[in-house]
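Structure first, sequence second, as always.
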């Protein structure tokens, strides 16, 4: 809600970088725990990677998702398999890049990213949490999908729906 509200105040000529900066600040200001800072870092990385673009083509969609993945990894120190949001973002980036490599459109790449994120999030159900507050629960985290990974699915799927 905070991101939608912040973006509703933006000039229609804003660059993708400006939109990412606004989204990142909204996450940082309104989302608690580690999720706010992780998504702020993700959007900041995307802002830097996309420069002053006004539109997203297939290459830019992949750059966006890869940059967000890298921002999350750098800020949180997670790696795939740690049962974090990175499990979803990493697979989203891999699948989007694979679709781009076979000449996929922006929509094709985003759809592949959404499916990858869903697969990555679903995979966390069988993992033991290695980071964050849930780490102390150990084996009891098996059987539960990581909430951060689920957030990645929501975000990427919302982008696909909007496109």
């Amino acid at each position: 809600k905070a991101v939608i509200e912040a973006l509703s105040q933006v000039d229609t000529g804003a660059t993708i970088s400006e939109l990412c900066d606004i989204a990142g600040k909204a996450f940082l200001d309104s989302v608690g725990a580690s999720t706010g800072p992780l998504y702020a870092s993700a959007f900041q990385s995307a802002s830097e990677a996309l420069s002053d673009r006004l539109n997203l083509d297939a290459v830019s969609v992949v750059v966006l998702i890869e940059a967000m993945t890298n921002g999350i990894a750098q800020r949180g120190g997670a790696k795939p398999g740690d049962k974090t949001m990175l499990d979803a973002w990493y697979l989203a980036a891999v699948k989007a890049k694979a679709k781009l490599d076979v000449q996929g459109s922006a929509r094709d790449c985003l759809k592949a990213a959404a499916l990858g994120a869903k697969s990555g999030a679903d995979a966390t159900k069988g993992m033991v949490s290695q980071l964050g507050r849930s780490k102390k629960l150990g084996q009891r985290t098996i059987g539960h999908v990581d909430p951060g990974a689920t957030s990645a699915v929501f975000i990427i799927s919302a982008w696909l729906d909007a496109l």
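Margin note: The radius of gyration is 15 Å.
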